[in-house]
Amino acid sequence: MALFTVNSYRFDPYKNFKFRVKWDGKYVLGISKVSMLKRTTEVAKHRESNDPSTARHMPTTTSFEPISLERGVTHDPEFENWANLIYAPGAGGTISLKNFRKDITIELLNENGIVAKAYNVYRCWVSEYHALPDLDANANAVAIEMIKLENEGWDRDLAITEPTQT
Q1: Which domain holds residue 149?
Q2: Opening angle at CA 75, ends 72 and 78, nearest 5
Q3: 1, 52, 102, 119: which has the fewest Cβ within 10 Å?
Q4: Interval 138-166: pLDDT, tens
């Protein structure tokens, strides 16, 4: 059985190092890490009095894990601007009720830089913002900023199909 329908000669899965993230209609620059998309459905156990001693399992509520985005610290204010919609330091900690939620798109690219899969993540908002990492004069590392996005679900963009590879 072929793992790829269009490129039946391909056996290797996609790599995880080529991707893009978009919100407000534009790609956000410099993102170096995106945490996994994970959803969990809770299980309710049920047993009737005359059932055997094993329980039946039923799905109940589904929750979606927060998504973390990381990138090197630069002068691009996209992370900070979005985080400030939740807590505006100069405005007494007020929240922007109109604009604080955004839909984002995460695109996985193949080795040639063509979108292979895309996921739409809905009603995201910043629950955690790291403006600077721990600073260490003895370290040899890139300064990383991070936002954690709460979300209300995601789905795969079915309009994106497997690209033909040459």
Answers
A1: 19-44+56-156
A2: 80
A3: 1
A4: 999 999 999 999 999 999 999 998 888 77
